[in-house]
Automatic annotation (TrEMBL):
Domain HMA: residue ranges: 15-81
Domain of life: Bacteria
GO molecular function: metal ion binding
Pfam families the record matches: HMA
Species: Candidatus Endoriftia persephonae
Entry protein name: Heavy-metal-associated domain-containing protein
Length: 117
């Protein structure tokens, strides 16, 4: 597993997500998971922890989305843990990614704080 400092979000729209993957049990599984997620655009860095069955991924939320990562994991044969807490966190991740993407592509604000007359 990489150091936690390399996993801290650096850019404005970068986020870090911890995803529990029950099928992640061997180093070969970790390599397959990393290959599947690395192919997505916007993914900056990732680390797998086989002992905790966990993937930590840092990506640009204006370019990629949590749902795209989940779909890549499922297509590789490593679906995330499916309990109420993980579904709740997944919904929150999708919501915040959508907000970040919308804000990143929003038009620039007005040049001053006074409304036009």
């Amino acid at each position: 597993m990489k150091t936690q400092d390399s996993m801290k979000p650096v850019g404005t729209w970068e986020v870090r997500r911890r995803i529990k993957i029950p099928a992640l049990v061997h180093a070969a599984d970790a390599m397959a998971v990393e290959d599947a997620v690395r192919a997505l655009s916007g993914v900056r860095n990732m680390a797998t922890d086989v002992e905790k069955h966990q993937l930590i991924v840092r990506y640009d939320a204006s370019q990629s989305a949590y749902q795209a990562i989940v779909e890549a994991l499922e297509s590789a044969g490593f679906p995330p843990l499916d309990n109420w807490w993980c579904r709740f966190k997944g919904s929150w991740f999708e919501f915040t990614d959508t907000n970040a993407r919308d804000n990143a592509h929003a038009p620039p604000p007005a040049c001053c704080n006074k409304p036009p007359k």
